[in-house]
Amino acid sequence: MGKRLIGGLTIALGVLIAVSAPSAGASRNVAAALTARQRAQLVWQQKLDRMVARGLHPARALLAPTRAPRVPRVTAQNVKQISKDTFPPVSYSQVDTQVEPDINVDPNNTQHITAVFQQSRYEDGGSVDPGYATSQDGGAHWTRGNLPNLTTQVGGPYDRASDPAVAFGPDGSVYAITIAFDVSCPNAVGVQRSDDGGLTFNDPVFPQVDGCSAFNDKEWITVDTFLGSPHYGRVYATWDRLECGQPIQLRYSDDRGATWSSLITVSGTCTSGIGVIPLVHSNGDLTLVYESFDNGDNMVSQTSHNGGVTFDPQVQINSFQGSGPPDMRTGGLVTATIDPVTGYMYAGWQDARFRSDGTNDIVLSRSTNGGQTWGPLTVVNQDPETDGLDHLTPDVSAYGGYVHVDYYTRQKTNGTYTLKVNERYIVSSDNGTTFGGELVLGPAINLTYAAQGGGYFLGDYQGIAAYSAGAHAVWERSSKPPIQETYHQVTWSATLVN
Length: 498
Fold this sequence. Notes:
2 domains; 44% strand
């Protein structure tokens, strides 16, 4: 029986799998003995196990939607490395690794771009301290730094931090959000603001702090930047919280992140969801898109018409049927965006239903009515569905009818995966109806030197941010180190011009 180290506790893999069966009393007792953080890791392991099983035992493929590409002209510029982990070795950390990037663009000055990422990843979760990279000239030049006073390595209170995301406010301020935690129990959601366009960040404010009984996971952030909205300038922080179930939570701030509202449980007490993405409409409505485990495994949305105070019932987008390579952790999470010009929303993920070899397409569903309903799935990638090319970990962003998607690809031949991964980008110029013009961005990724975290780990997500003239993408690239060391994984970016 195999074993895995989870937060300092070694548990037999057979027990891990058994815990997922609610009727197993002994398994429930094992789960109850775990800390909230260990239960969070257990949820992730069970999710990854299910994804791997789909890839190893593929079902007969469904009939795929027609793949009829248009080829909008697009060029890639400023394709280069923008950051590198510079932390010295810390016990058990994976030196020279950056993981799990996100990126955003200032809606009022598209020359201003900020990306965030983990640095010096720990195999059992979190990093030494998240970092950031900022460009104020449209991606031509970048400056980098570490989020200050968050973890002990930079003068903060917590051992580790994870899951960074970034958003711009209407005044040009930049907000970075993370999960911070100790190896033992205390954990928090932290938000840090930059008042100089992402060149430096203030000390963290912690909207949510918990002890051993609850663990906060997979947080995200957005800001209402619509001048006509009744909630203009409101900052929204969302996450899932493992205590009784894994419900979706929200707090908001109307004073630029200084103070926060009371805790709002969106999905209902003791429900279970993960990977929530908040999307703000021009009229001030707020839609949350996330993965729900309550009635199967489905991507869902919920919309608020009063600034996040109350929410409509769940609307199902579609089921999640993604797979994953057995030696690589891919998030399998939903990605979502809203086009600020058209108001259309898009939700996407990796999905194996249209293939019979256990690999994934990237699929999107669109809502044109504020999340009341969602349309059928569109396959984004345009390669043949029998070519064994796995499409993983997508992100989506949209502006003015252009829908931009980036994702990793990895070749599977006769059941064996290559260690070579590519970063790819594709675009639609007709509101996500058809896609074409795919580009391979930057040099290939070599997983031999990738961070480890449930397998080779580039991150549960990567980033793309659209603006009027195109988009900026960010991803992680592992490659042979320039000096002799185990890992070498750095952050790359590209500017995609319509």
